[in-house]
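Q: Okay, next protein. This is NACHT domain protein from Immersiella caudata. I've checked the sequence twice, so it should be correct. Can you predict the 3D structure?
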Amino acid sequence: MPLRSAASPAALRTIREAFEDLERAVTPADAKEFGNTTLQNVQKAALEIENRMGARKSLRNMRRIMPFFTGLGHYAKTIEVLCNGTPYLPWIWAPIKLILTVASDFVDAFDTIIKHYSRISESLSRFEILKDAFRNNTEFQNVLAVYYCDILKFHKAAYRFIRQRSWALFFDTSFGRFKSRFDDIIANLKSHEHLLDLTANAINISEAREIRIRLEQHRKDQLDAIAKEEKRKTSQQYEEIVAWLKVDPSEQVLILDSVMEEAFKFSSGCDWVTKVDRIMAWMQRNDNEPFVWLQGKPGSGKSVLAGHIIGFLQGATRADHSVLVSHFCTYSYASSTKYDLILRSLLLQILQANADLVAYVFRLKETDFAMRAPTSKSLEQLLRTVASAVPQTPGEVKHIHLILDGLDECESEKQGQLINLLGQLVATRSAPPNSARYKVLVLSRNTSFLTKRLRKRATVVSLTDEAQQLEKAIRSYAYSKLGALRSRLTGMGIGDADIRDMATAIAQKADGMYIWARLVIEYISNNMFYNKDEILHAAQELPSELGAFYERILTQILGNFDTRSTERLKSIFGWIAYAKRPLRMFEFQSALAFGPGDPMVANVPPSYLFSMCAPLIEERRDSTFAFIHVSVKDYLKSRGERSMISEETAYYEHGTATITCLLSGLTVFDSAYSTHDRNRRVLRGLHAFHVYSNEFWLDHVLPVMASTQKDPASSLYALMSQLASKLLELDSRGTLRPQTRDTATLDSDLECLKTFEGLYTYAKIVKQARSAKSLEEKSRNQGAAEGSEAPPDTLSAALSLYQSTVQSLLALRTFPSTSMEDLERFKKSHRTSAFTCRLNGCARSTIGFENDQLRTEHEKTHVSRLYCQHPGCPYPPFSSDRTLRNHIAKCHDDAHQEKPRRSIRAHATQQPSRLRGQDLESDHPMIHAAPHPAPINRVDETPLKAEPPDPM
């Protein structure tokens, strides 16, 4: 009996690696089935599928795939020598049976897969001739192994495609993304035909080897280029979704950075939280403890603990590919506590779990769903849809850890809705085994409402029960802070042992409140002590209740204040508590200057005023101000008749300041005003509040005008009358003409302004003129930068001239009567004021960019654009479907292969409901398309098949 020919080690290694790669991608059950499948089984299954589809009146031309089966038979006989004694051979045909069976329920997907399999047959035809001649040749075996590798890569791509969750929902989008990979595999097979001929003819074996190496490198380079292009497009689409939702992700980034910085500084005082049994169970990648509520009293460091948990999970998620989603609610950023903005924040983070989700929502925003701004109901449904459709690899269970801090700071009427929504996300664990699992951690104070709503839904972890750990952590915190005062304390005879005793005393009396410990240490730092005993007993003499402590601090601040200074202190507190976004120092000074109602005020208040409010407020790294803790705001509101802040009073004062600033702008930023004097005022920072005023004046004025206690004799009314008259006077060209569309809703919202004719008309313009559609039209015609220029004689014109003035001052090296230090300080603080987004409602319309290029790039994301999906196409985005189609027909017509005819009626009848309603105009394979969303109810824009929310 002749010995079996030796097989090429390189070929065996290539085949084994390709086999193991596909084996890892499939489920164990499918792998077992593949091993027992013959080529005849696959052919028989194909005929059965054809009969079933014929019975459904969706008969397909299955003859297209028969040459592929024939070619596989010849190839199998050729490669048999390499597969003897291994399970490798059946895997070149076995996956086809499963893929065709699953895809047969979806006509479009079935046609596409059949077409690509039939293309492979062209590369297999020559094995009928070569199967006996060269199969024992080592170089020939290496080529056979490459074919095996390519075929299994094709199976793997198709298998993962049809096995991922919601693959039919994402078919159009995902196949557009995978098409480049399929085409690349087919191209490799074509290239290997030439290599096969060279090898079979035994001509220049070394050249054949060199070609093979080049082809392998070319394939690798192509795959790298495809991956890079996919990443770029996904990133671009994500940025456009962010712009569509009008969310500024940098806000949460700033909050998280601040929290993480504190957590990092005192990580030793936070380590204990990750060792609490229920928190440990929640952090693990399993279904244990899916919903946990960590509750604690004010100032107990819940946000810092959340930051520490996030830092811990960030290291873990990088290793196991799970997803981490977080949102911090804080009064410092009013938008962070708004229900619909919380939904947008969570949605954007979940989208980052998978590129297919980004493509789906990107396509969704270009449909009629985006005709209006998304409502809370439509956002809820979109979030549920995206959350339940997170794709994942077969056999893998993806866990998404969601952390929500400060639930008690959210709008009280929306807290129940948010709990219901989080509960629905957690409920997805009862969904099919391959769906994503959500694990939710909520951190908040223990309120009666939250206790009622969460006690049955969530596992409760109370910081009160962890008093020993908290005391230990606060002791470490206090010792660290007191250590910074060591040089001062040493001079009074206080040694290290005394510092430890002080830290212990502070921790014991703090009763789990970091904020109390912080206030004690600041008290020790800022007061005069004559001897050692006064310092050692300071903690014992101070009130243990936060409210009493705040009262003592406030009394000390007010001790030397007259009535005017007290009112100014209230004003500063009011701006911190109720501004629409945190004000930077230079904006704050300008706001205080315009607060009394003088449009031509000559100077801004000095910056040292803010230090006089310490320690109740603090300046952050971005030069904004905030209370040291949310409990300070609660205390200032709760002093009864001696209350230091009132929402109604704050809105009145803020309305006065914004209207005064706008009035001043109409005078100063007018062509008749002296350029030198204008520049001097801007350099002094007098108009730094202008960007904020232009964006938020309506938000401050409307609550005052809608109040039942409004006073027509007040200075605010007089200022509004002046502004209305000024607008009418300046409207020499008739620019105050709002569009007529959607005026019913606007009239209802602005009814209280009707007595101020010019202001009322301009308010409607503010709501209409700078819509996304308007910016898109301008961008297409002239480019975003030139097209957004405001019309003359309006508040927008004043803003435009203010920003132009700032831009011109940024370019100066000197200015008369201004020192170099002051000029550089102005440039550093005002640079972003000059380059703000010109789309009304965008978060970047008041927080700008470092230069005009960055702003222009950002504004482009507000404009819907269509990209040609042909790999490597250099053309810029197109403005409409028609122009894109014309481009494809002209430049890529060979890529478009007409679909086989079919009965439209039969297809519509048999097509699954989840694929109906797709945009027929986006059917071309070169046009990036995602599945059409569920039908939209035009009353509230909620998908009709949305599940009703849980009862509150």
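A: Here is a summary of the prediction. Residues 573 and 645 are 7 Å apart (CA to CA). The longest strand covers residues 437-444.
Q: Noted. On to the next one.
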